[in-house]
Amino acid sequence: MRVIGITGGVGAGKSRILSYLQEHTSCRVIIADQVAHGLEEPGGVCYGRIVSLLGRGILSEDGRIDKGKMAAEIFGDRRLLEQVNRIVHPAVKDYIMEAISAERQVGRIDYLFLEAALLIEDGYGQIVDEMWYIHTDEEVRRDRLKASRGYTDDKIDSIMRGQLSAEEFRRRCSVVIDNSGTLESVYKQIDKKLGEG
Fold it and tell me: Running DSSP on this structure, what letter comes out for residue 6?
């Protein structure tokens, strides 16, 4: 089983590529954001620590963490954001390491694809067999984010400023998939890359 990290900037089209991989390979896909959300649910390993840190004011009526309230609490407070990240990121990594180990023992899939915005920053390069950078021209990413998520230029600027540059992604990843053109083009690149393995 090969473990492949999938990373790239916001709006690069990682979700569509993961869907294609799920349909065309024997694999499991793990999306770090989804893992984090699960661990922040009541009973999850991060839930109690986050509530202790931020207070019960971030909870919705059903006792779950309200993402909007939590974002409002930590937005603009770098110290709080870092404290939340110190709770969540190691727990997500532990979950992923256990999942990789379990899949290796079972031996029923050819690939495990791991998607996370901070794969490089959080040191997943030591965990995966190879890292794929999904590159998409900035103009294309901006158009996608405006159309699909209704983001403003200011919001896009703010997100992009917090992410690695294209040059840094290229430097840290062994494979570059260019997703600026047609779907057919990107699928051909993926098929060629997987065929080399």
Answer: E
| Domains of the chain, each with CATH number or no CATH | 1-26+110-197 (3.40.50.300), 34-99 (no CATH)
By three-state DSSP, how is residue 78 classified? helix
> What single-letter DSSP state applies at residue 46?
T
| Phi, psi (deg, nearest 5) at residue 113 | -100, 130
pTM above the 0.90 mark? no
pLDDT in tens, 1-37: 999 999 998 889 999 999 999 999 999 999 999 999 9
The alpha carbon dihedral of 157, 160, 161, 167 has a sign of negative
How many Cβ atoms from other residues are within 10 Å of residue 93's Cβ?
17
Distance CA 45, CA 37 (A): 11
Band (118; pLDDT cuts 50, 70, 90): confident
**Beta carbons of 95 and 35 less than 8 angstroms apart:** yes
How far apart are alpha carbons 131 and 147 in whole angstroms? 28
Please give, one letter per residue, the 3-state secondary structure of 7-50.
Answer: ECCCCCCHHHHHHHHHHHCCEEEEEHHHHHHHHCCCCCCCHHHH
* Residue labelled with tokens 């794969």: 119
Residue 111's beta-bridge partner residues? Answer: 2, 27
